[in-house]
Known about the structure:
Elements lengths: L2 H9 L26 E5 L7 H10 L7 E5 H6 L7 E5 L10 E3 L5 H16 L2
Amino acid sequence: xxxxxxxxxxxxxxxxxxxxxxxxxxxxxxxxxxxxxxxxxxxxxxxxxxxxxxxxxxxxxxxxxxxxxxxxxxxxxxxxxxxxxxxxxxxxxxxxxxxxxxxxxxxxxxxxxxxxxxxxxxxxx
Length: 125
């Protein structure tokens, strides 16, 4: 469907379907990406400790879809998707897009800094 046909279809409020594989249909609208509440990018080959992931989800009252964890290489390959709150751990590249950045393992002082930053970012609004 061409962009003009797609606009006409939407204008007439006719039922339409979303393609799960837009690369197969070059003129189909791409499905919107779900934006995570918190996106954690770990350095290449680094894993987020399961206990830290659980703590993040419980402290911020997030479910599995609201907390997303990606390897730096995967994040770059995906076009650097954004989230409301972005945390970077052991990154090798530019960190200007991140709300908070440090290295694993976290010291007690860095954990306090992380929790303080998360509370400010997630609950201040």
